[in-house]
Amino acid sequence: MALDTWLVYLVAAILLSLTPGPNSLLALTSGALYGMRKTAFMVLGGALGFTAVIALSVAGIGAVLQASSQVLVVMKWLGGAYLVWLGVQVWRAPPVRLVLPRQQRLPAGRVLFRRGLLAAISNPKAILFFGAFLSQFIDPTRAVWPQFVVMAATFVSIEIVTEFVIAGLAQRVRAGLERSGRRFNQVCGALFVLIGVALPFSGTGAGR
């Protein structure tokens, strides 16, 4: 993966990790209820789940490239349209309101690991999103799987750091999302729209 392509991907991956989703909400809840040590199991489970989802998405893109490289161009435009649509949905989304349940006892680490794993892989929109998202950065002139390693390692590392920060600042982040979450959603949504419009024209996926 070319350096300029990776830098664009890095910015987009950071934005994606900051957008409220099932795993970030789990990190928020777990951090408030169980503390950082227990939450680490949930974060690692989510990291494994995201790696699996990214692998499935890249495998699908690789199969498309074997059939016809021209199909990837179509995927880029469809992916850009999907990112624009997603940006509109994020813009319109209400702020997060999190109600913490009473917790009688701390769950085992394996239970939290499983929760993080299932949250990452059970969302049917995840594979569709990564299919649209990653296709913007694939260089069809290079081997697909080395690019997968770079993209997966980058995204999972960002996701782990983000979730640990959210868990560590659980009470402050929770209050902030409830107070100004609508504005935060609008900023993230607008950035998704900009990425969805710009990437099909940028040629980043072709390594230029």
Description:
The structure is a single chain. The chain has 208 residues and is an all-alpha fold. It has one domain (3-8, 22-96, 107-202). The protein contains eight helices and no strands. The protein has helices at 3-18, 22-34, 36-67, 69-92, 109-121, 124-134, 144-168, 170-202. Helix 3 packs parallel to helix 5. The radius of gyration is 18 Å and the shape is globular. The model is unreliable at 204-208 (pLDDT under 50).
Please render the helix and strand layout as text.
Blueprint: H1 3-18, H2 22-34, H3 36-67, H4 69-92, H5 109-121, H6 124-134, H7 144-168, H8 170-202
Helix pairs in contact: 1-7, 1-8, 2-3, 2-7, 2-8, 3-4, 3-5, 3-6, 3-7, 4-6, 4-8
Please describe the structure with a list of short key phrases separated by commas or semicolons.
208 residues, mainly alpha, 8 helices, 80% helix, disordered C terminus
**What's the total number of strands?**
0
Number of helices: 8
Oligomer: single chain
Helix/strand/pairing category: mainly alpha
Point out poorly predicted stretches.
204-208
Determine the strand fraction and express it as a percent band: under 5%
